[in-house]
Amino acid sequence: MRSVYFQRPLEYQLLTESEEWHQGQRVRGSLRLKNIGTEALSAQQSMISLGHALKKDIKAGEANWHVYGELSLDFPELSSGQDHLIRWEMPLPSDCPITDKSGALHLLFGDENALEQGGRIDLQVVLHPMLQSFLQTFTTQFKFLEKYRKFSGGWTEIKLIPPDSGEFPSLDELLLNLKMVEERMELWYVFRLKGLTRDGESLKARRKKKEVEQALGADSYELPGGFPNRNLFRERIDEALAVARLGI
User: Fold this and answer.
1) Tag placement on the chain: N or C end, fewer CB within 10 Å?
2) Whole-model pTM above 0.70?
3) By the 8 A CB rule, do 139 and 159 touch?
């Protein structure tokens, strides 16, 4: 991905090596600074910030950036027409926001005021690979249907609809919340159940919410070679689903 920002007499050109990144991955790229003025410029300091904001606020020009990281790059003196390129890398936190319909992480670049006035690239950030493997185990092995995923309150929230097999007659929907805190996988299941209860001679609709929390360490969810422990994933998912099988 590439973005160019002009702040005369300078031209900033930011380039990233990929168009999609996983939570916890290192974003890599380059920043090229060019003197498009007629006079030589002294040494310059440029900034790259990793910030998240809501898309509606960005569109309205009222972005409230939550900064997840910053880089300071020192460029040498540049004569008229001269440019200089610096390669850089920046880690994405393992629990950083994914890109969803409401917001995205951006790389903001320019001088020390880049957050307020500078260039930017929006990053396409997807789930941490281990979390994606866990979710894939859920949908393929237990036949749940994913309806959406979004970043909410520090978690990636995924709405799942149960299969039509009749195994979960009281389960209306499941909100599966995932996050990776350093190397610990945290899971929070919110089951929304529905059913009928008798009130005298009549039946009344009843709804109930049940929650289950789990945490897995890297020594259990990761096999030699870095492969996901899908057997463990199935066991933990099945343990959590026992709550839904019991009904209201």
Assistant:
1) C
2) yes
3) no
